[in-house]
User: What shape does this take?
Amino acid sequence: MTPQQQANAALADPICTLSDAVNQAIDIAMSEDPEVFALGEDIEDPIGGVMKGTKGLSTKYGRERVRNTPISEQAIVGAAIGASLVGMRPIAEVMLMDFFAVAMDQVANHAAKLRYMSGGRTNVPITIRTSVGGGRQFGAQHSQSLEGWMMHTPGLKVAVPSTPRDAKGLMYSCIFDDDPCIHMETLSLLFTRGPVPTGRFVIPLGVADVKRSGDDVTVVTWGWQVPEALAAAEQLQTEGISTEVIDLRTLVPLDIDAVLQSVARTKRVLIVHAATQFAGPGAEIASVVSHELFGELAAPVERLGSVYSPIPYASELETLHYPERLRIAAAIRRLS
Amino acid sequence: MTPPREQAGPTDVLGDDAAVRIFRTMATIRSAENRIIRGLNSGELTMTFYTVRGQEAIPSAIGEHLHREDYMVTTYRGLHDCIAKGVPLDELFAEMCGKFTGTSKGKGGPMHLSDPHSGLMVTTGVVGGGLPIAVGLALSSKLRGDGRVTVVNFGDGATSIGATHEAVNLAALWQLPIVFVCQNNQYGEHTKFADYTRSSSLAERFAGYGLSALSVDGNSIPAMSAAAEAAIAQARSGEGPTFLECMTYRLGGHSFGSTTEYMDPAELAQAEADEPVGRNRRWLVEERGIAEDVLQQLEAEVEAEVDAAIEFAKSSDPPPASELLTDVFSRMEAAPK
Assistant: This one.
């Protein structure tokens, strides 16, 4: 489908929030496969998940398949792993990504490694849904984008949708993937609205999406930095700078070919993410681009991530912590 | 040494055939450990190894009451658990030696043994890390109604880590078909029980989670068998989980080659004199009237089985280089280049 056809088709799709889209994907997966179930804190109705991702599902499928848990992140992730080892497809909710720190033994030492450590005799087809804060004055323990930590642990797949449509398609793929998937749901995007196809809808993991086409500079980003980059690109258009915005959508698998194809054409690239810039995901992407396109680039590869500090509470400081549209636009101007 | 607190048994309803089967498993475990230690001392074998000497009766008795399709989770100190669950000796030793014929093609090693064909689902190298996963295995059985029971083994040392408490609480809350087997060998790595907790009884401490919790003489075949049988039956019938504190004694240092200077020599000597293979062998002969030649023949058989399996492991090839990047994901292409 061409982008124009896609846009036309999307016009006919119903509008819903990113949270609703995730909910739809879980609903469809549960209706298709009795081995899919969900567990986590406060995910049953009437709460339906503090971010509403499972709203209505315990009522529809029963409290056996949509299970509340105590505040026990290690047990939540561990129980999902255990059930998945024998072929079930659990969806575990870790309320905020910061709380991965509590569950990281299960995530990194077990979920990520059991396929390898068993020589392929077992595998861990779990999905861990988690909300990612940032930009909402939640402070240093409720605002972290920890995708770099996940990417640095071989064996984990990482999806970071930026639109309701992508969230539905990626969530469905995560549930039915045979490896552990982390589905990062950005708080600041959860209640943004957009067109979402009805029924079963799949976006394969590892396929980046060009969210805006352009000729002068490529911006590579994901998650809640996508709308920020698009806003910056819109501003720069008025200044005569044509910006392409690539939404990676998944970080593992990483669609590096899409990045290289774009940068081979624009010769300039900026990588933007909410994760800490130092030793962050952008460093890996920058390294590959520099290596593969050495000699073809018109400017050094640029990165814009969060500054090297815990996340501050005061909005005046928090605004300075994360990349946002004004600084993204400034970085693109410097490049072009 | 903390005296065993026997609340569970012994009930002595165990038949002679079952008692001898349990002893045979114990003899296999002992023979395996002796053979491995001999190989490590001579340089014939190379591996990390954590002694199970003194703890043989616990999984041997449990194994008598489990089905092949029941699930087990254990720890790096798990040779006895693996053998008792029925992991084939040749694949088991090959894995411990890092060979391609091993249960994990040599990619897991002695701390990460798994063999789903015999129900051994996970061996973890992280103290307490196996309990949450075992809860998930038991949850799958509850959701599917498949009648399977999960047994998760861990040492007394694991009762000091948070994951254990999250897991036991959740299993009790959900009334899952699981047996928590705490092999209380009196040491958490290099620290004595009394030096890391003010609790005198782990069974009493864990009873507070609202599940059956009892202490049993883990070195007695009849006592251990009775306790295991009851706990497994309770789990299988949907009546909820049990925490079994199996009293035993680790007859050596934390790992192969580590010292025992922190262990009381007199206490260790006493435990050695009362070690479970010899003790239960005497019980079989003296209390059950099992003929000496029956036991001698059995011991010769298991020694031959162990020797053959070690030879299989030694003669197997290591995994080829092509194995380095497989089994990271379901498809290799998903991994970053």
Q: What stands out?
A: Residues 116 and 173 of chain B are 27 Å apart (CA to CA). The domain at 16-317 of chain B is CATH 3.40.50.970 (Rossmann fold).
